[in-house]
Amino acid sequence: MKKTLFLLLFFAYSSFAQNTDSLQIRKIYDEILTNGECYKTLTHLCKNIGPRLSGSAGAAKAVEYTKKVMEDYGFEKVFLQDVMVPHWVRGAKEEAYIENGKTKTKVPVVALGGSVATPLAGIKAEVIEVRTFEELKALGEAKVKGKIVLFNRPMDPTKINTFEAYAGAVGQRGNGASEAAKYGAVGAIVRSMTTLQDDIPHTGGMRYAPGIPMIPTAAISTNGANLLSKLLKENPKLKFYFKQNCETLPDAPSHNVIGEIRGTEKPDEIIVIGGHLDSWDLAEGAQDDGSGCVQAIEVLRAMKALGIKPKRTIRAVMFMNEENGLRGGTKYADLAKQNNEKHIAAIESDNGGFTPRGFGMVGTSEQISKVTVYKNLLAPYGLAEIGRGSGGADIGPLGNLGTLLIGFKPDSQRYFDFHHAKNDNLEAVNERELQLGAASMAALVYLIDKYGL
After folding, report:
1. Residue 322 catalytic?
2. How much is the pLDDT for 14?
3. Which of 37, 86, 150, 222 is the most exposed place for a label (fewest CB within 10 A)?
4. Please, is 116 exposed, middle or buried when counting C-beta atoms within 10 Å of its C-beta (0-12, 13-18, 19+)?
5. CA quadruple 99, 103, 107, 109: dihedral sign
């Protein structure tokens, strides 16, 4: 009899709690969809500041702007964390053409971030096309030395999750130059990381392996790569010319930007929501990752607007230098460890401001199971994909401290249309989709704060 009574009381309480949580989540969505200000914040970040590559004047302006936004909202504490960041500059616009006999055909290229410049006169050489490093190795020095290597492996269009397609191709961008240089290549050209067939090249970070000559490397548009590949089959002796003027300057001072609402019951337990404030230099960095930054700020704004007093401390963090160094994320985790801070969960939005689909998680089975129980509460808002997955680059270092890492998952189909390209501007972002993402993260923060992990 006692057991039956206990079960009845338990289910009655659970039903009451679910109903209470459902009503509060509805209020969160209503507030952000009706009064949300994240698109307004993103508009200023994009149109008044623009590109924000680490070490640039734009990055410094973005630090001051987002700090002021959070101060104006009245967050209880707003502060900066000092961090030294790489300072790479593109220089004058790149030039490239295919020389096929007497015909010169211009093609769009952009230097990859971190690359060295070509000689002042540029580089002209014959081309070797490969799709994998194994194929390059099989060709060897005898066929590669003195040539430009074209890495032409496309993103796999059959992958429904485009981030899987990206992961399957991006290695050639990051390591292609050093792999080509092992066999005496004088330059490397990499197919842009996008499934679109167009004339827009996409930049991105690359790295040089120690002890190997540093050769210049650039991304070529997908149409340019297709044309070069086609012409190579007709004339393997054609030549490719490119010129770029990039330079790596000494590391520069910058900052992570942090705003927080102090917890009322367990202030020493911290929940982080964040994105990276830096962007590549070709565009306004709207999807990557202005969207994530303004969504994080919006979570705290909405909580204050609704009078939600969290049990735990909630932080919005604008990480600096995700694109070409991850210095901000590393510094944040180092300081968290140094200050003995307990981060129970960290949510990162760095997959664009598109329609929300769910959350991926990295953590213990126990941690993940405590979040997956919220599926029924979140499913009405389109958040069906909640489970083990990936967290995010900036919050990754917090994993070593036992923090549950959560990656916000919007629809992925359009992200690589804009990723690291000149069209990643405000016009690429839909205001309602952006707000829905902010509301999704706010709902999850509310639940984790209320019930803990």
Report:
1. yes
2. 56
3. 37
4. middle
5. positive
